Amino acid sequence: MMLGWLFASQADRRLLGMGPFRGPTPWVIAIMSFSIMIIAATGLALANTAGSLSRAIEARYAVEVPNGARNLGAITQALKSAPGVTGVEPVPESEMRQTLERWLGPAAESADLPVPALVNFDAAPGADIGAIQRRMQAIAPAAKLSAHRDRVGPLLRSMRALQWLAFGLVLLLSVASAAAVVLAARGALDTHRFTIEVMHGIGATDLQLTHLFQRKIAIDALVGSLAGAAAGAVVILLLASGSSFVGQLVGGARLAPTDLVVLLLLPFALSALATWVARRAVLRTLREAL
Amino acid sequence: MDGALQGAGPCPRTGEEGKLPAIAEFDSVGLRYGTGAEVLRDLDFRLSDAGFYFLTGASGAGKTSLLKLLYLAQRPTRGRIRLFGEELSEAPRESLPPFRRRIGVVFQDFRLIRHLSAFDNVALPLRVAGASEEEVEGPVREMLAWVGLADRASARPPTLSGGEQQRVAIARAVINRPQLLVADEPTGNVDAEMAKRLLHLFTALNRLGTTVVVATHDVGLISATPGADLIRLEHGGLVDPTGMLRNPPPGRG
User: Fold this and answer.
1) Minimal CA–CA distance to B74: which of B30, B25, B121, B22?
2) Can you tell me the distance from the alpha carbon of B63 to that of A289, in angstroms, rounded to the nearest whole number?
3) Which of A120, A287, B57, B210 has the most C-beta neighbours closer than 10 Å?
């Protein structure tokens, strides 16, 4: 049985002279698991946000007319009748003034303030954007047409970079966890060197000895990673501010059900990695002796 | 166990010694640790199956090193060693455990696992060989009773006296009826009565077919075992003026 080593007899458990959960390994794994959980959730949320933002602005354009509040209605009508335009969304003057108020304060309410006109619209694939721009400039020569993706592009690139940075950090933390497990395994081998020598002397195989250590480290790693992941989940829920589990994370970022499955699998993946690494480290060290 | 293992002397061996199968054969064996001088050199001898041998020599003569070669804790740096009919000096290490299970070893420093009870220490070879707990219980209790430690089964080595620890070590070495029993100063920490009982155990095992090699300074032990052969080491080499060690004579008992 491939996982038979997990179910050691009482006698085998006594051989290492101590139960699981002693020493720093479960704690180290728990801290790593907690960090991995938070960073992975952030990375996944960023990926989702970047994806939905990218889809939302792909075909979205804006027409801006400096000091053109009086042209808002005409521009809106012209856009609605323009070929290739699938949706028009004028930004009301009141909303523009509200936005300006952040910088100008009460002066934003002044009737003398030259408030620009802003109309967002969605274009169908293949729409002649140049013709639409010319049509707008016929109404207001100062009208400027811009694609949202040009404006939001740098932000999207930053989000993508952060997303990959998060996944890179998850990998780095996994490697650090593996390194911690290797050190723990070597420490355990040093502690039990005498027992190992005696066991080898009476005919124990490397695999029999490896199973003893592998089992202990597997249990330590599983408990540590589950505890860390549980703490991480609590933090993620707190950040979600009490909304539904598949709810908002930070700033409207969302975790899809598949993301939750990935997050749920992370502690088990971390435990499996720790166990595999421990097994290799123990076997390699045992092979140094006759 | 008592009846089965009691015996008056080593296994009587009749006939031509050369015809007896060898359990161990050393051919020009040398051993050095690291870059130091050779601690064993030019060892040429064979141990007959079911033989009883005493290994003697002054401290530092190489007795423990020779025993290490015998119980496969060390490889020779030169020469060849055949054990149980197999060439093992350069055998892959993965192939050694089954051979080690056929060897019982009584270490000079007992080598008991401190955090295990006397019972668990004695049970180790059986468990390593894959015996179930039901198969372990009876023989281990019987063996502990034989070495006089029936009531100390759950005691851990640090709570046992030196003599008691040695008896646990001996019980562990013989629990699985090894084909080759190697003992390094087995009577060093026991009283005369216990030494006599141990010798009886060894000779009884020998009569059942176990080859016994005992490293000792105890002249009394040697003289109490008239049928045994003597291997004498000096400065890492065999003292063999008569050549009888290459072809040990029949039992002299």
Assistant:
1) B30
2) 22
3) B210
Radius of gyration of chain B (CA): 18
How far is B168 from B106, CA to CA, in rounded Å? 10
Pick from B73, B75, B3: which is nearest to B32 by CA? Answer: B75
B138 beta partners: none
Q: Å from A246 to nearest chain B CA?
A: 51
Specify the DSSP element, H or E, that contains A210.
Answer: helix A206-239
CA-closest candidate to residue B115, choices A238, A17, A163, A34: A17
Could you give the count of Cα atoms lying within 13 Å of A151 in the half-sphere of its Cβ?
10
Nearest to B100 among A9, A14, A202 (CB): A202
Q: Sorting pLDDT into bands at 50, 70 and 90, what band is B183? A: very high
Q: Residue A11 and residue B120: Cβ atoms within 8 Å?
A: yes
How is B111-123 classified by DSSP, letter by letter? Answer: ---TTS-HHHHHH
CB B113 within 8 A of CB A200: no
For chain B, helix (H) and strand (E) counts, in that order, are: 8, 10
Q: C-alpha B6: how far from its chain's center?
A: 18
Q: What is the mean pLDDT of chain A?
A: 85
Q: CB distance A287–B93 less than 8 Å?
A: yes
Minimum Cα–Cα distance from B98: chain A residue: A203
Cα–Cα dist B253/B244, whole Å: 16
CA-CA distance, A52 to B75, in Å (whole number)?
Answer: 67
Task: Tell me if B111 and A287 make a contact (CB, 8 A cut-off).
Answer: no
A146-205 pLDDT, tens per residue? 888 888 888 888 988 998 999 999 999 999 999 988 888 888 888 888 889 899 999 999
Beta strands per DSSP E along chain A: 60-65, 85-91, 117-123, 144-147
Start-to-end CA span in chain A (Å): 28
C-alpha distances in Å from residue B156, one per residue of B49, B89, B115, B159, B161: 35, 36, 6, 6, 10
B172: Cα separation from own chain's centroid = 12
